């Protein structure tokens, strides 16, 4: 199973491709970011995200998309823009007929480090270690995309539960 | 100029088509809603919204899409879902090469009733009156879509200013 993990953003969306080649063994299949220029109109930025993500899905043929749930703190204006971007990412997955699993930030930490209150640094260290990479994957957004993909592999058996929880969202 | 007004929602998105046939004269070109079933997975609901809106744009050939800006009060979870839906609406506009104008709720009230603090009832009454309709357009979400389209016609001369303000969003 090849998992495409996505950490949604407007300016920068991180992605990571992780496969579980044999039970319990993770294989790194790439990572990167999708960027959009700040000066561009919102609907054009969304089209860019959709197009690049659709191309990535075509090129990498994942079996499932794992995507982080949004969590708003103070900046609701930024939050709306990121949610709009997340919407077109979900659409790209739907148009590619891929199942989607959604994870809260604490679930990603739990799924990678084993602790829901782990720091971002711990998550990135474990991501590097679990994938056997020589250094920390860069940039951080891409590392977060990999972490979300790892989380999905680790929580795989619970996937059907998560998908049905997602339907109720 | 034919304006497609959109009042974004996840379960129900209202739309209205309004043209300014001659200077100052508004013409009603239809209204309705795009609905998605609550039990369906989020990415499939978004695909349904995108598909139906794209079909509507193909069939009605508007010159511009006017869409309400989101304003979060308490329910941030609902707000995220609506923002995701708004994202795929902006994408449908981008894929149809249409310009997009975005209006805050108070701007819509101002643009239809002339008062930013007008009630929803006043906006709906003026929408019916300005379009010369025999009764209030139903359902309310569709009436709100018409109001957003009217707002854009009335604020037309300020459009370029709004579009550039939008780019900075």
What percent of residues of chain A adopt helix (DSSP H or I)? 40-55%
Radius of gyration based on Cα positions of chain A: 15 Å
Determine the most extensive contact between two protein chains. Answer: A-B, 33 and 33 residues
Tell me which oligomeric state these chains represent.
homodimer
* Name of the CATH first level of chain A: Alpha Beta
CATH architecture designation of chain A: 2-Layer Sandwich
Low-confidence stretches of chain A: none
Shape of chain A: globular
Order of helices and strands of chain A: EEEHEHEHHHH
CATH superfamily of chain A: Ribonuclease H-like superfamily/Ribonuclease H
Largest pleated sheet of chain A: 5 strands, mixed
Number of strands of chain A: 5
The CATH topology annotation of chain A reads as Nucleotidyltransferase, domain 5
Number of helix segments of chain A? 6
Averaging pLDDT over every residue of chain A, what do you get?
89
Number of domains of chain A: 1
* Beta-strand residue percentage of chain A: 15-25%
The assigned structural class of chain A equals alpha/beta
Strand order of the largest sheet of chain A: 3-2-1-4-5
How far is it from the N-terminal to the C-terminal residue of chain A, by CA?
Answer: 25 Å
């Amino acid at each position: 199973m090849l998992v495409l993990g996505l950490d949604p953003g407007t300016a920068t969306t991180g992605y990571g491709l992780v496969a579980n080649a044999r039970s319990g063994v993770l294989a790194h299949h790439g990572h990167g970011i999708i960027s959009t220029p700040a000066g561009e109109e919102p609907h054009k930025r969304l089209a860019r995200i959709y197009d690049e993500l659709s191309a990535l899905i075509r090129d990498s043929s994942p079996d499932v998309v794992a995507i982080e749930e949004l969590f708003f703190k103070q900046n609701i204006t930024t939050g709306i823009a990121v949610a709009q971007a997340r919407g077109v990412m979900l659409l790209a997955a739907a148009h590619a007929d891929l199942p989607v699993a959604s994870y809260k930030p604490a679930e990603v930490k739990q799924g990678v480090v084993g602790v829901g209150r782990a720091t971002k640094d711990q998550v990135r260290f474990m991501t590097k270690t679990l994938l056997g990479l020589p250094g920390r994957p860069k940039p951080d957004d891409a590392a977060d995309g990999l972490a979300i993909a790892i989380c999905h592999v680790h929580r795989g058996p619970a996937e059907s539960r998560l998908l049905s929880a997602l339907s109720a969202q």
